[in-house]
Specification:
Layout: E1 32-33, H1 36-44, E2 48-55, E3 58-65, E4 67-69, E5 72-78, H2 82-86, E6 95-109, E7 117-131, H3 135-149, H4 162-166, E8 168-174, E9 177-183, E10 201-204, H5 226-229
Antiparallel strand pairs: 1-9, 2-3, 2-6, 4-5, 5-8, 6-7, 6-10, 7-8, 7-9
Length: about 230
């Protein structure tokens, strides 16, 4: 069994993450990758991750915002949240988690119902979530969370006050066990189905940003920021 290493021991300059027992792909291995740049790009293109953990013997999966700084993922929540308290344990700090991010890129319609599929990009991260206690790191993490949604926004908004910071728990997950999986192809019909009279192909799926809608109480004269008009 491969033993995960800590962030301080991980080789963050390597081109790829080392596969482990938990990240090694078992199906469609040709779609898998441990390339660091690819994994970073998939994470950076998302808005929501799913944070999986076990509490009282039962599995939980929570959708939440996230941000990345180097080889670290950050998520946040209320200091009163049970999973965040679990991650701040005193005897053995940290909580085992699995973080996933998925982008849907296309609906793959085949001639047979069995061969229908999706085109996608996904990342799975295994690791230990630990609560960030250093104020400077917490503030940097919160900036990363805001900029994950809209790059440049953290510099164009009021930072968290001491009271808000005290009410916010930030979790860090080091990227040491991570893998990507990508499908980007047409339908894979069996040869005997090619002649069937059914349409086959791919319906692309994209995320489109609409024009910014100002708040009803926005002070007149404040323009739409450039970082929104160029999206």
């Amino acid at each position: 069994m491969s033993v995960p290493v800590t962030a301080s021991a991980a080789d963050t300059t390597a081109a790829s993450f080392e596969p482990t027992e938990r990240t090694a792909l078992t199906r469609h291995r040709e779609r898998g990758s441990y390339d660091r740049e690819l994994i970073h790009s998939i994470l950076d293109a998302g808005y929501v991750c799913h944070l999986g953990f076990v509490r009282d013997g039962a599995p939980f999966v929570l959708p939440t915002l996230y941000g990345r700084i180097g080889d670290r993922l950050y998520v946040h929540g209320s200091t009163g949240s049970r999973p965040l308290r679990d991650a701040a344990g005193t005897e053995d700090p940290g909580m085992p988690v699995c973080v996933t991010v998925t982008h849907l890129d296309g609906l793959v319609l085949a001639r047979s119902a069995f061969s229908h599929s999706l085109n996608y990009r996904s990342v799975v991260v295994h690791g230990t979530a630990r609560q960030v206690t250093d104020e400077a790191e917490a503030r940097a993490a919160l900036d990363a969370l805001v900029d994950q949604v809209v790059p440049g926004r953290s510099a164009d908004s009021r930072p968290a006050s001491p009271k808000e910071l005290a009410a916010t728990a930030v979790l860090r997950v080091d990227l040491t066990e991570a893998s990507a999986k990508v499908r980007d192809a047409g339908p894979g019909d069996d040869p005997e189905d090619i002649a069937l009279p059914h349409w086959a192909g791919v319906v692309p799926v994209t995320t489109v940003h609409g024009p910014p809608v100002p708040a009803g109480d926005l002070t007149p004269g404040i323009p739409v920021p450039d970082y929104l008009t160029v999206r």
